[in-house]
Design brief:
alpha+beta, about 170 residues, 6-stranded mixed sheet, Nuclear Transport Factor 2, Chain: A, about 35% strand, 4 helices
Length: about 170
């Protein structure tokens, strides 16, 4: 009987030590309520990006990126850093995308951490032209981005756009 009491006391002590080591979430450090606020802020960022794209304002478009953020196009072109991202947008909007309009939908926002989010979405760009000025069909694609929250503001750390193609081994 003495042994059972000793074991029970030991288990209670071990349980209290484990309970003391379990971190307690801090209010506002994530969780459902904060996720809703951040989700709204991120969707707002993309709405503002669409406005900047449709106004053909490369400086404003690049302002949504982190200082060291990057973007990768479906053809593998990469622009690293906000300045290079701005130059990339400026080149595109001075030529092929000069008269384009983008429609972008954020499909999901997943918070990897309180200050890191993974965003998936779709987009359609209409009005693009080729190097000879001939109209191109609408560019329909997918978008995946990692966003970070710095000094209370969300910024794109990495953005990847892709144009899905049928894979020959998948059934139709």
């Amino acid at each position: 009987m003495k042994r059972i009491l000793m074991v029970a006391a030991g288990l209670c002590f071990a349980g209290s030590v484990v309970a003391q080591q379990t971190p307690v979430p801090k209010p506002g450090a994530g969780g459902p309520r904060q996720d809703l606020v951040n989700d709204e802020a991120i969707r707002g960022l993309y709405s503002e990006f669409v406005v900047a794209w449709n106004a053909h304002d490369p400086k404003k478009m690049a302002s949504f990126f982190a200082i060291d953020g990057d973007t990768m196009e479906p053809d593998g072109m990469v622009a690293k850093g906000r300045d290079e991202v701005q130059r990339h947008f400026a080149e595109e909007h001075a030529a092929a995308f000069k008269n384009t309009e983008i429609k972008l939908t954020v499909d999901s926002v997943w918070f990897v951490a309180a200050d890191v989010a993974l965003v998936d979405g779709t987009y359609v760009v209409v009005g693009a032209v080729d190097a000879n000025g001939q109209p191109l069909p609408p560019r329909k694609g997918l978008l995946t981005s990692v966003l970070i929250k710095e000094h209370g503001t969300w910024h794109v750390a990495a953005s990847r756009s892709m144009i899905p193609i049928p894979l020959p081994w998948r059934p139709k």
